[in-house]
Design goal:
This protein is of the alpha/beta class. It has one domain (about 5-145): Alpha-Beta Barrel (TIM Barrel), CATH 3.20.20.140. The chain contains 5 helices and 6 strands. It has a 6-stranded mixed sheet.
Length: about 170
C-alpha cells in the first residue's frame, strides 16, 4: 500500500490516528506523517518501526530515526527510548508467524516494554489473545491493539478507542 492509500483507507474506516510500523524501516511511517500533517482530513500518524532483535520483534513508536535490526533487546529498547519513543511488545504469543519473541524473553521484554499488544488483527487463535492479556496484566503493562495491516482489507480490522483528552 502506498502511504496515501493507507491513510485514505484508514480515514474512510473512521480511524482518527494510526501507528505506521513497517518491518525494519521508518520511511513509510515518516511519509504518512508528512501527508497527514498537510491534510487534516487524514488520521494523525504515530511513526514507528517493527524492529527485529536477536530474540524477536519489538515495536518502537514515536520515532524519527530508524533503528538497526539485529540488536540485543536491551540495546533496541535503549535506542527507542533515546528518541523519546515508546516500546511495544507485539503479538507475544502468535505461534504461527516468524519474528515472535522467543518464549524465555516474553516476560522480560514485557517488563521492558511500555505496552503489550493483546489484540492483533492477524492472530488466528483466541488462546493467543488470552495469553497476551494475561501477560500484560501480570506485568502491569497497558494493553494495545492493532490491525497489523499488510493489505487494504486489513486496515482498521482492530483498533483501540482512547477517550478524548487521555492521549
Amino acid at each position: 500500500m502506498t502511504p496515501g492509500f493507507l491513510l485514505s483507507t484508514a480515514a474512510l474506516r473512521g480511524l482518527g490516528c494510526v501507528a505506521v510500523t513497517d518491518h525494519g524501516s521508518l520511511r513509510g511511517a515518516l511519509e504518512c506523517q508528512e501527508l497527514a500533517l498537510k491534510d487534516p482530513a487524514l488520521p494523525r500518524v504515530i511513526p514507528g518501526e517493527e524492529i527485529r532483535t536477536t530474540v524477536g520483534e519489538i515495536i518502537g513508536l514515536y520515532l524519527h530515526r530508524e533503528i538497526a535490526e539485529g540488536l540485543p533487546p536491551e540495546e533496541a529498547v535503549a535506542a527507542i527510548r533515546a528518541q523519546g519513543g515508546l516500546v511495544m511488545l507485539p503479538h507475544p504469543f502468535d505461534g504461527i508467524r516468524r519474528g515472535v519473541v522467543v518464549p524465555e524473553w516474553r516476560e522480560p521484554l514485557a517488563l521492558m516494554a511500555d505496552v503489550v499488544e493483546v489484540w492483533n488483527g492477524r492472530l488466528l487463535r483466541p488462546a493467543d489473545w488470552r495469553r497476551a492479556l494475561e501477560l500484560a496484566a501480570r506485568t502491569g503493562r497497558p494493553f494495545a491493539a492493532g490491525s497489523d495491516a499488510h493489505y487494504p482489507g486489513e486496515v482498521g480490522r482492530s483498533w483501540l478507542e482512547v477517550p478524548p483528552g487521555s492521549a
